[in-house]
Design brief:
The complex is a heterodimer of chains A (431) and B (338). With 431 residues, chain A is an all-alpha fold. Chain A has 18 helices and no strands. Helix content of chain A is 71%, strand content 0%. The model of chain A has no long low-confidence stretch (mean pLDDT 86). With 338 residues, chain B is α/β, with parallel strands linked by helices. Chain B is built from 14 helices and 13 strands. In chain B, strands 1, 4, 5, 6, 7 and 13 form a 6-stranded mixed sheet that branches. In chain B, strand 9, helix 6 and strand 10 form a beta-alpha-beta unit. In chain B, helix 3 packs antiparallel against helix 13. Chain B is globular. Classes of the chains: A mainly alpha (431), B alpha/beta (338). At the A-B interface, helix 4, helix 13 and helix 17 of A face helix 1, strand 2, strand 4, helix 4 and helix 7 of B. Chain A: It is found in: Cell inner membrane; Cell membrane. Chain A: InterPro entries: AA_ABC_transptr_permease_3TM, ArtM/GltK/GlnP/TcyL/YhdX-like, MetI-like, MetI-like_sf. Chain A: This is L-glutamine ABC transporter membrane protein /L-glutamate ABC transporter membrane protein /L-aspartate ABC transporter membrane protein /L-asparagine ABC transporter membrane protein.
């Protein structure tokens, strides 16, 4: 029978075939391109158009970068060297580098202070941003506002020390009467701090040269540094204010509730630029002639008020998203309002609010360029005013604005990436 | 009782404020610096250089006043102002003098309560177009898109001109001169209009200035001058006569080069009076005898300032035109120093 079988079946394979490579069209780059770029005639057409556009942009911009000139002293010299060929005149960036970063009036031999303040800012911000770092570093974060102020504005070290002492004395007073009630504690804090600052004022006046750095008035701040100062200060101030406003808006006490509602709705109903004009122009009429209330502080107050109102609404959204059960659970544990808010409500509400808060922070940072319309020389103000109005650089646009875009992109993109990382870190639900 | 005390205190405060506002000269001397409002940057007229030192034609006026009053041309605190903030800065007392190519108009002088101390540049509004547009007169610009700075007198002049000639236009509003340049070059508007001095400076910065022409029509009078607050005539006089001293010095041939020689006495009694070697003009102003000499030394006489910052040998390249001395067919005519 086996013979029969051998005849009826022509061929029997006795070994396995070696594994073959999949067809070239189903793996690697080719497969990916077929799947993603050339799937159907419509996709193919779109891909071809996109490639053409990209090619046009690159082909146009590439010689502009490569032929760029970095070492001349004026636009006219650039044009002389280029002789009509395409090329960027990046010399404006190298020649006015310090002005773009620090403004045009900060004393040049004091730039180290700004750089040091910037480096220390990174050190101070790190433990707040990354919770894996040792908690002891937070001590430095608390000191940083005073160190940063002293480094940037200069003057005697006593001024920030007295400010710091005021907070410490106030905190001690708060601790002493905290057991009576929170409100009493807050009042004690205020009184103690004010007394300390008042007394410290005499000390500052009597020894203005104590460990003094060269004092730099606010009017001399400028460049990207001014954007950074405004952005960092206003974001860090508006977050606590925003939380308080959001809680106040949910409060059962009518006066607090209505103050918060009116503040938030008023600020949200007014454009930021109007508030800046008020800070710059209108306040000057109310103050007696000769008094100069620091312009940067006026602007910081206005931007902070503006950002606080927006952050308050974002956080209110977070609070509203918490299930009712969380509040009730906190109550059933016997926690009072402050404890429940601090331990149960806020951590969850803030986590929900992260994307919104970051959105406001990025928008706020970009909005700091609006100060250029009230004749402050931030990065945009420097470019629009002094640099483009100098006889050497009148007519350079793409290079300067490109640089500004680049700087802002770096900062804003980093903020956005950080927030996404933070969301992943805090993700505790197993979705 | 309490109320009357309160009102009394308010009155005293008001009087003190009024008194301090009235004696700007004393304030400036006590402070030791002159707060001078300038532009945030205009080629040739005012801009900080790479080291942050302000320089320019308007800046020269600030420095001359500081030299006359404080004996130090560098004792100036420059306060940059925009077209929108300049008048409030002056009215609120933040600055003592505004030298920011501001057009002298009736309403600014009378209604806004300022005092223009003179004219340091006679300007007029003109039009610039690309050469290949083939237009030779502004009256042929029917239907054109026009780049125009908002919040300035040029905006109103433009509307007047086109209405008068019964032709239409489409305005493209812009904020600063720096914004207008790329917009105009990339064809965002057919015509760019601003003061003729600004057009010349803008055109000079182009890669191919020859491709663009400034039309012959000048459609407005724009006398640009420094101004101070209304109601402090002593301070106004100081500024007015510092400006006149610079103009008169050119007319009389006093330059920063030969002034030391002339201060030892000349045959011309007017020069002697100007430089304080004769008469007591300085005393009348509340200054010392050398006030005008110091102002002239600070940056040179009017002609020297003009040549250095905006004259034909600078990138701005303006000719004297209306701003020549009256003896050369221009409008500069300083009253006599007597």
């Amino acid at each position: 029978m086996s013979d029969m079988h051998a005849h009826s079946v022509a061929f029997v394979r006795e070994t396995m075939l070696p594994e073959q490579e999949p067809p070239a069209s189903e793996v690697g780059v080719v497969h990916w391109m077929r799947e993603n770029l050339f799937r159907g005639w419509a996709n193919t057409l779109m891909t071809v158009i996109a490639i053409f556009v990209i090619y046009k942009i690159v082909a146009g911009a590439f010689p502009w970068f490569v032929n760029g000139i970095w070492s001349t002293n004026s636009l006219a010299e650039c044009r002389e060297i280029l002789q009509g060929t395409t090329g960027g005149c990046f010399s404006v960036l190298t020649e006015r580098w310090n002005q773009l970063l620090f403004g045009f009036k900060y004393p040049q031999d004091q730039y180290w202070r700004l750089i040091l303040a910037f480096v220390l800012l990174g050190l101070a911000a790190a433990p707040v941003l990354f919770n894996k770092l040792p908690k002891q570093m937070l001590f430095f974060t608390g000191l940083y506002p005073f160190i940063g102020f002293w480094l940037i504005w200069g003057g005697t070290l006593l001024a920030p020390l007295v400010a710091l002492a005021g907070f410490l004395v106030g905190f001690a007073a708060f601790k002493k009467v905290e057991h009576q009630s929170f409100a009493m504690g807050a009042l004690a804090f205020l009184v103690a701090a004010l007394v300390t600052w008042f007394l410290g004022g005499f000390a500052i006046r009597s020894a203005p040269g104590f460990l003094a750095l060269e004092a730099v008035p606010s009017r001399d701040m400028g460049g990207f540094m001014l954007n950074m100062i405004l952005g960092v200060v206003c974001v860090s101030l508006s977050l606590p204010f925003g939380i308080l406003l959001a809680l106040g808006r949910q409060s059962d006490m009518p006066i607090i509730k209505w103050i918060c509602v009116v503040f938030i709705e008023f600020i949200r109903g007014v454009p930021l630029i109007t508030l800046l004009f008020v800070a710059n122009v209108v306040l000057a009429y109310f103050l007696p002639p000769g008094t100069t209330f620091d312009l940067i502080i006026r602007v910081i107050i206005m931007i902070t008020a503006f950002a606080s109102a927006y952050i308050a609404e974002v956080i209110r959204g977070g609070l509203a998203a918490l299930p009712r059960g969380q509040y009730e659970a906190a109550d059933s544990l016997g926690l009072d309002y402050a404890q429940a808010t601090r331990l149960i409500i806020m951590p969850q509400a803030l986590k929900i609010s992260i994307p919104g808060i970051v959105n406001v922070a990025v928008g706020l940072f970009k909005d700091t360029t609006l100060v250029s319309v009230i004749s402050m020389f931030d990065l945009v103000g420097m470019i629009r005013g002094p640099i483009l109005a100098s006889t050497e650089w009148n007519g350079v646009y793409w290079e300067l604005w490109g640089f500004a875009v680049f700087l802002f992109f770096i900062v804003c993109y980093s903020i956005s990436q950080y927030s996404q990382w933070l969301e992943r870190q805090l993700q505790t639900d197993h979705r | 009782m309490k109320k009357s005390v309160f009102f009394g205190a308010l009155t005293v405060a008001g009087l003190a404020a009024g008194a301090s506002a009235a004696a700007t000269l004393d304030d400036v001397k006590a402070r030791g610096t002159l707060n001078c409002g300038v532009t945030t940057g205009l080629v040739g007229f005012a801009a900080p250089d790479a080291n942050g030192n302000w320089d320019g034609f308007d800046v020269g006026i600030c420095r001359a006043v500081a030299a006359a009053v404080l004996n130090d041309p560098t004792a100036v605190e420059f306060v940059p102002t925009t077209g929108k903030t300049r008048f409030t800065a002056l009215a609120s007392g933040e600055i003592d003098l505004l030298a920011r190519n501001t057009t002298w108009t009736f309403s600014r002088d009378v209604d806004l309560k300022f005092e223009f101390v003179g004219v340091n540049y006679y300007d007029g509004q003109g039009f610039m177009i690309p050469k290949d547009m083939g237009v030779s007169s502004a009256k042929e610009l029917d239907g054109a898109t026009v780049c125009i700075q908002t919040g300035t007198t040029t905006e109103l002049n433009l509307a007047d001109f086109f209405r008068k000639n019964n032709i239409s236009y489409e305005p493209v509003p812009i904020e600063t001169n720096a914004e207008a340049q790329p917009l105009y070059l990339e064809g965002g508007c057919d015509v760019y209009t601003t003061d003729a001095s600004g057009l010349a400076a803008t055109r000079a910065a182009f890669e191919n200035p020859g491709d663009h022409v400034v039309l012959p029509e000048i459609i407005s009078k724009e006398p640009l001058g420094p101004l101070v607050r209304h109601g402090d005539n002593e301070w106004g006089d100081v500024n007015r006569w510092v400006l006149n001293a610079l103009i008169a010095a050119e007319e009389l041939g006093v330059t920063s080069a030969n002034i030391d020689e002339m201060m030892s006495g000349t045959e011309n009694p007017e020069i002697n009076r100007l430089l304080g070697t004769e008469g007591n003009l300085g005393e009348m102003l509340g200054l010392d005898a050398d006030w005008a000499a110091r102002a002239i030394k600070a940056g040179g006489n009017y002609g020297e300032l003009f040549e250095k910052h905006i004259g034909e040998n600078t990138p701005v390249g303006l000719s004297r035109g209306l701003n020549a001395q009256w003896t050369d067919g221009g409008l500069l005519y300083a009253p006599p120093f007597r």
